[in-house]
Amino acid sequence: PHEQKRYTGMRGMNLEEDITMSNKYYLERDIAVIYKKPTPVQIVKVDYPKRSAAKITEAYFRKPSTTDYNGLYKGYYIDFEAKETKTLRFPFANIWDHQINHLDAIKRHGGIAFIIIAFTTLNEVYLLDASYMIEKYRSDGVRHIDYDYIKEKGHLVHQGYAPRLDYLSVIDRYYLKEEKNENPKK
Amino acid sequence: PHEQKRYTGMRGMNLEEDITMSNKYYLERDIAVIYKKPTPVQIVKVDYPKRSAAKITEAYFRKPSTTDYNGLYKGYYIDFEAKETKTLRFPFANIWDHQINHLDAIKRHGGIAFIIIAFTTLNEVYLLDASYMIEKYRSDGVRHIDYDYIKEKGHLVHQGYAPRLDYLSVIDRYYLKEEKNENPKK
Ligand SMILES: [Mg+2]
Ligand SMILES: [Mg+2]
C-alpha cells in the first residue's frame, strides 16, 4: 500500500511537503536537524497598524542564492535541492546556474550535496549525488538528464508512512559507508 | 584605524551587514559557504499582473524556527545567531526559546554553534560558544548574560577591512585546534 502512494494533485500532496514532513520526523526523533530555507522575498512596503501585527503590503519573490534544504546529520553538513518532474527526464530549465555552483562548492568544502528527484508519473523518488548533476549540467549541448541515467547513478528513496521519504537511510548506506571504506566520491 | 570602526547608526552600518559582507568575502575566496537565511514570511495574497513580476500584496513576518546563519567551513557544519546590544549585558529577551533549543541540537549532532554579540557602545564583537548561552538561558532566574562573562568565556572577533569581521579565524584558533588536541567542548 505504501508503494501505491502517488505524487498527484488529487492526493493533495507533493514532494516538498513529503520532505518537510520527513525533516519534521527526523527533528522530533533527534535524528537530524534539516530545514527548508524560507522563500526569499524582497520586502518593499510594510504597514504597522496599531494593536496588530506588521503587515507586508508590497513584496516580490527573489531568486534563491542557494538550494532549498540544508542541515546537519551525524556531524555532516547536508545540502540539497528537491524537484518533481512529470516526464522521464529532468530538464535543466528546472535548476539555476548558481544552484549548481552552490552544490559544487558544498562538495568542495566537504559537505554532502545531492538532488532529490521525483518522477511523478512513475511514483519513484531518487537521490542523485550532486557530482553527476554538475557534470551533466556543464557538458556542452546537454539540457537534461534521462531517467535511466538517474536510475543507474542515483538511489531509490523508500516511501513510507513515517518518515514519508527516508532519504537519510540512503545517506547512511551510500555516503557514510563509502566514507568509512574507500571514499570513492572524494 | 580599523579599531576605530564603530557600530553606530551614523556610520550607516550594522552587525548584520558586516557579517553578510564577511560571508561574501569568504564565499568569493572559496574559504567557506555561509549564508544568512531569508526572513521567514507568511505569504497570504499574490497578484499576478500581466507582463510584470508577481507581486505579494499581503504577507506577515513569522518567527524564525532556527538561527539566522548557517553553512559549511572545512567540512564542519556552522550555525549561529548574531545580536547587537547597546548595554553591557545581553538580555535573553533578544533570543527565542526555540533558537536556544536549535543551537543545543546543533551541538548534539556535531556541528559548531555559537552567538556573535556586538557591544555597540564599546565597539567590541565577541564570539561565544552556544554551550555558555544555553546553560545561562536555562538557569533559574537568570535573564541576561553580563559583558564580563562574555569577555571571559567568549573570543574577541577582529574587525578589519576585508573581512569586516573575521569570525572564522576564531573558529580556526579555538574550535579546530581544540578538535585536534583535546576536544574539551564535546
Ligand atoms: Mg527550489
Ligand atoms: Mg535574528
Greatest chain-chain contact: A-B, 39 and 39 residues
**What is the domain tally of chain A?**
1
Question: Class of chain A in CATH?
Answer: Alpha Beta
Specify the helix fraction band of chain A: 25-40%
Q: Roughly how many Å is the radius of gyration of chain A?
A: 18 Å
Biggest sheet details of chain A: 6 strands, mixed
Kindly name the structural category of chain A.
Answer: alpha+beta
Shape of chain A: globular
The end-to-end distance of chain A, rounded to whole angstroms, is 38 Å
How many helices of chain A does DSSP assign? 5
Strand content of chain A: 25-35%
Average pLDDT for all residues of chain A? 90
**Topology order of chain A in helix (H) and strand (E) letters:** HEEEEEEHEEHEHEH
Provide a quick synopsis of the model.
Chain A is of the alpha+beta class and 186 residues long. Chain A contains five helices and ten strands. Helices cover 30% and strands 30% of the residues of chain A.
Would you give an account of this structure?
- The structure is a homodimer of 186-residue chains.
- In chain A, strand 4 and strand 5 form a beta hairpin.
- Chain A has 5 helices and 10 strands; from the N terminus they run αββββββαββαβαβα.
- In chain A, the strands form 3 sheets. A 6-stranded mixed beta sheet of chain A has the order 1-4-5-7-8-10, sandwiched between helices.
- Chain A has a single domain (2-38, 64-181), classed as Trna Endonuclease, Chain: A, domain 1.
- Chain A is globular.
- Chain A is α+β, with helices and mostly antiparallel strands and 186 residues long.
- Chain A has helices spanning 15-28, 97-108, 130-137, 147-153, 167-181, and strands at residues 33-36, 41-47, 55-61, 69-73, 76-85, 89-91, 112-119, 124-129, 144-146, 155-156.
- The relative contact order of chain A is 0.15.
- Chain A starts with 14 loop residues before the first helix and ends in a 5-residue tail after the last helix.
- At the A-B interface, strand 3, strand 4, strand 5 and helix 2 of A face strand 3, strand 4, strand 5 and helix 2 of B.
- The complex binds magnesium ion (2 copies).
